[in-house]
Amino acid sequence: MWRAHAVDPLPTRPVVPYQDSELSRAHKAGLPYACDDVFAKGAWLPHESMLAAVGVRAYATCPLQVRGKPVGVAIFCRGEAVAFTSSQLAVLSDVSRALAVAVANALANDEIRNLREQLEAENISLRTQLGQAPWFEGIIGESQTLRNTLEAVEQVAATDATVLIMGETGTGKELIARSLHRRSPRARGPLVMVNCSAVPETLLASELFGHERGAFTGAIERRRGRFEQAHGGTLLLDEVAEMPLETQVMLLRVLQEREFQRVGGGQTLCVDVRIVAATNRDLADRVRAGQFRNDLFYRLNVFPICVPPLRERREDIPLLVGHFAAKHATRFGRAIARIDRRTLKLLESYDWPGNVRELENLVERAVILSRNGTLRVDRDAMPGAALTGDVDAQLQATERSAIEAALGATGGRVAGPNGAAMRLGLPPSTLDFRIRRLGINKFRYRADSAIGARPRRK
Question: Can you state the angle between helices 173-182 and 144-157, rounded to 10 degrees?
């Protein structure tokens, strides 16, 4: 232990920066730096005035590095102007390596503790929010049908099971997929989404599985596919019903073996990915029409989740209208203080073929057109709203007749190129709703078709 000697008042010396100093060059090279006598120097580094003030005459500094990264500097001091020998500097360098590991561990522990405290604070905040807000972020509603769907999400989220999300366009299937991912053990991994209907059929395999350089015209370099990008996380295959049959075969192999090859490549790649598929089509009808593989359907349909259309949870409409009105009022700098009562009744009576997305678009327009802080929607802004709830009996009979004729001609098939929806020029989901609303038994037409196909007995 060294003892500071009484010294005369410190003389003033110019200060030189660390940059390009002998000490800086030594530390960058991973070597110790030694000063035999600070008072013998004509100029001081920034720290040397502090060392001299407490009686230090000679010192040695060793850089603390772990895996080539600096974590600090160790300073060894003497109260007398006695130089450090090369053997002493070698010993101090060895000591410094052990110090560097200890300092790195301490810094890592501090970082872990800070992250843990931050996570605990976020969890407390999240629990508080969950007590005041809807169950799921971005999903608004309190109806029992929606609660059933969200309960199913809670049940399957913690597992690694493949999930098939079914629902009409605009019901929020992507929000359900995001909620599944965030509540799963893979939440820290990536959530990668692919819209199978938005990618050309000839490029979908490359989009999903990647390709090697020269695999096809335009493949100028190797490209990682979405499966590789989603490794350790979740892959959402949106509009999976639109996937071509050739790509379905490749997807089936990945689901079975958890391995694949890039397009034009021979190397087998293994991935750890959870599959979530989404569709607004009836996959069973697509299977019967030969447009979707039966074995792939069963692989995807491990845990089906049905997202209810808005017409089946009308009690959620006031909450959704209030949410969208506040959202877009903030966006456009408008003040919406109230919602017209007749507007709310009109919105609750509409069938919403475009579901929540259509409702939000309509509310957005209404916010733009609002006056005096009141949200109003004219009946003219809602095509078909006048016919909802009080359809004329003659019109209803005509509608029933047209639907029954189309079902009879197609053997009860709703979707597909030869389905009743195609004949009537309607989306399959809309036709299904009208069939249920009119109480039509579409399965009777399938039975009649099967009976009619039997050969007659002689």
Answer: 40
Residue 458 lies in a domain: no
In a domain, 267, yes or no: yes
Secondary structure E strands in 204-358: 234-238, 259-261, 268-270, 274-279, 303-306, 338-339
Q: Which of 357, 387, 417 is the last residue of a domain?
A: 387
The tally of domains found in the chain comes to 4
Convert 307-323 to b/e letters by CB count within 10 Å (16 or more is b). Answer: bbbbbbbeebbeebbbb
Rounded to an integer, what distance in angstroms lies between the CA atom of residue 351 and that of residue 172? 17
Structure tokens at 20: 């390009």
CA distance 334 to 133: 24
β-strand partners of 72: 64
Query: Is position 138 within any domain?
Result: no
Q: What is the pLDDT of residue 166?
A: 95
Tens of pLDDT along 36-68? 998 888 888 888 888 888 889 999 999 998 887
* Dist CA 307 CA 280 (whole Å): 10
Which of 354, 387, 420 lies at the terminal end of a domain, its last residue? 387
Q: How many whole angstroms separate alpha carbon 355 and alpha carbon 175?
A: 14
Supply the CATH number for residue 345's domain. Answer: 1.10.8.60
**Which neighbouring-strand residues pair with 44?**
15
How does DSSP classify residue 241?
G
Q: What is the pLDDT of residues 316-348, one digit of tens each?
A: 999 999 989 999 999 988 888 888 888 888 898
What spatial distance separates the first Cα and last Cα of the chain, rounded to whole Å?
A: 118
pLDDT in tens, 224-253: 888 889 999 999 999 999 999 989 998 998
Do 363 and 328 meet the contact criterion of CB atoms below 8 Å apart? yes
Q: What angle do CA 380, 382, 383 make, to 5 degrees?
A: 90
